[in-house]
Amino acid sequence: MLWLLFFLVTAIHAELCQPGAENAFKVRLSIRTALGDKAYAWDTNEEYLFKAMVAFSMRKVPNREATEISHVLLCNVTQRVSFWFVVTDPSKNHTLPAVEVQSAIRMNKNRINNAFFLNDQTLEFLKIPSTLAPPMDPSVPIWIIIFGVIFCIIIVAIALLILSGIWQRRRKNKEPSEVDDAEDKCENMITIENGIPSDPLDMKGGHINDAFMTEDERLTPL
Amino acid sequence: MAHAPEPDPAACDLGDERPKWDNKAQYLLSCTGFAVGLGNIWRFPYLCQTYGGGAFLIPYVIALVFEGIPIFHVELAIGQRLRKGSVGVWTAISPYLSGVGLGCVTLSFLISLYYNTIVAWVLWYLLNSFQHPLPWSSCPPDLNRTGFVEECQGSSAVSYFWYRQTLNITADINDSGSIQWWLLICLAASWAVVYMCVIRGIETTGKVIYFTALFPYLVLTIFLIRGLTLPGATKGLIYLFTPNMHILQNPRVWLDAATQIFFSLSLAFGGHIAFASYNSPRNDCQKDAVVIALVNRMTSLYASIAVFSVLGFKATNDYEHCLDRNILSLINDFDFPEQSISRDDYPAVLMHLNATWPKRVAQLPLKACLLEDFLDKSASGPGLAFVVFTETDLHMPGAPVWAMLFFGMLFTLGLSTMFGTVEAVITPLLDVGVLPRWVPKEALTGLVCLVCFLSATCFTLQSGNYWLEIFDNFAASPNLLMLAFLEVVGVVYVYGMKRFCDDIAWMTGRRPSPYWRLTWRVVSPLLLTIFVAYIILLFWKPLRYKAWNPKYELFPSRQEKLYPGWARAACVLLSLLPVLWVPVAALAQLLTRRRRTWRDRDARPDTDMRPDTDTRPDTDMRPDTDMR
What we know:
Cytoplasmic side (chain A): 163-222
Subcellular location (chain A): Cell membrane
Structural class of chain B: mainly alpha
Strand content of chain A: 5-15%
Order of helices and strands of chain A: HEHHEEHHEHHH
Low-confidence stretches of chain A: 184-193, 195-205, 213-217
Oligomer: heterodimer
Site (Cleavage by BACE2) (chain A): 125-126
Pfam families (chain A): Collectrin (PF16959)
Radius of gyration of chain A: 44 Å
CATH class of the domain at 13-126 in chain A: Alpha Beta
Helix content of chain B: over 70%
Structural class of chain A: alpha+beta
Mean pLDDT of chain B: 85
Shape of chain A: rod-shaped
Strand order of the largest sheet of chain B: 1-2
Number of strands of chain B: 2
Signal peptide (chain A): 1-14
Distance between the termini of chain A: 138 Å
Low-confidence stretches of chain B: 1-15, 608-628
Helix content of chain A: 40-55%
Order of helices and strands of chain B: HHHHHHHHHHHHHHHHHHHHHHEEHHHH
Largest sheet of chain B: 2 strands, antiparallel
């Protein structure tokens, strides 16, 4: 009798948990990819932990606080490591709706990942999209800060250059004497404008007959 | 000609003094920096790759020797001799040719508009490189946070960052969209940097050029060393440099080589004329021309090696990822243990599985992974820098550092070219005396930079990239070729070959050899005529552009669309505008002469003046004919 009951139970379980069954989810783990040398082997103890995590997630759902580890059924464990699981109700006759299981897993995905040292890419619940981490948005984007710094430096540099240019010009205007010495060398200077010497004498201001002045300067080197 | 052979007219620099380079190195670096630009990094390697690898160097060298160096020499020589910017130089050669100078100024203005926009994009990427992880490394999640944004999912994180988060591009050129504020402030910053460096002309440029011209070489060396140590680099180099001689039979190769050498040396901008005009007249411009052209050439090669080794790494990386994805599909579907199929075993395993479970394998999304396919994927222009390189950069350890170095290099390269381009606009304006004498030079440069910045804001619109491509294709290419052609013809045939050789003999101490004379007289104009014809032929095809349209069925491929009527009109206008100055100026000059002749004739009715006498250009604008 007991044997019959046992077979019946396993048969029912087998029906409930099957690849592609209603409310069943496929899980895929990539332990070696995630951990490399430190990868652990997937054995029944790990399966037990998995069942415990799923049960834990379900218990957080209102109305499902009575979920036990035995309500979570695993099947078709492959070498990949992948398997299917379903969560049954306390009567163990029906499986809980996929929507509930999905939302429960989604809310606790982080805890489940951490229990196995995996992340969203290496512990995949096919058909349950994981909630992506919110993008790290600092209140002020970094590029604006750097831009602000650089722009301020540029503005200061421009201001300094303009100011130094103004000072230089003021200094030059106050020293016309230096200009006179150079005029002697300038006799041969010919510009494009029809051979009239260029006019450094403008610096002296006033109305001066330039041609006359040039002659004068040449003859009186003092 | 302004300065007849007389003792040292340059010694007299007074109130009107023309600024001078502090030393020869500044001048050489400025010309080199102007010549070496973004094109050396992202255009030459692409051409090399497309046109048969090492074999492309043959037409390239031939074009350099017969076209690039001779025209370059002409520009440096006339700038140095006549000591004026492009407008002054051409007015001095012949008043009827003053349009060439005006055309150069207009062209440089148009080019500076879009070139600095590219520099602004580079600046934006540079600013965004100061974070880890880099913003283009992953797609942003969508609203429910269940997956990634659809556009990003369909293309790639780097493409999404470029087209959406940087440009925010519209799907059509008709749809202008709004101004993107982040691009606008980057553009403002770029123009501020340019202003800061050209504020007092070569006085300030000469100081900055030490950094902006040399820093790219430093970074290229670092990238070269790094690139050669990356896995797959040698495969990239071998594949990309292996010469494919058959491709030389395609005439396109020769034409593209010639146009590339042309733009690469930044000829016909007027920038080299401007720079050379600040030289002392007795400078060996012939040696300078050869040296700078060769340095530019070597830089292109050097950059290609660095670029190809990085591309080889990328191709190998992509190939391995492709294999890995296929292997994962197999493992997941058949539930094999993890990492049970290595990359080498994959073909055998696939064959075996295909034999035993053909239907199941056929359903899997397996892609054919061939290394050559990945190596063949070439990109040029902004696509290389902002999409291909950023993606490669993500795979290199220490990604933000490499990104900073790369974009820093592009920024300084673009900047040094901008100096030449802006100087090509400012020097003629200064010479012509657009603003009164009491206005300081800083104000003029500021005004020019402000006008350029305001005009360039159209490129910060959402459709800005499409407009930039229009400017690049239609404003630059045809005009540069036609203006260069007019330059050579103007100097050789209007100014006179003999007089030009005499001037060069006076400046450099030796007469130009027959090579120079032959290339100036015959080869360069001939080549240029061919290119102009080629460019015109290009226009006969319907004008198309490639749009980024997320709703396109074949997304992420770009959708080919025709330019609307008004855009086509803009294309034509841009390609004609600078060159139109030539006939307009010549006509204006003719009319002025005629009017003067009539006026003189009316004032002195007894003198028997033949109208021709006055229309001869020599009497007015060449005072040295009186001096000789």
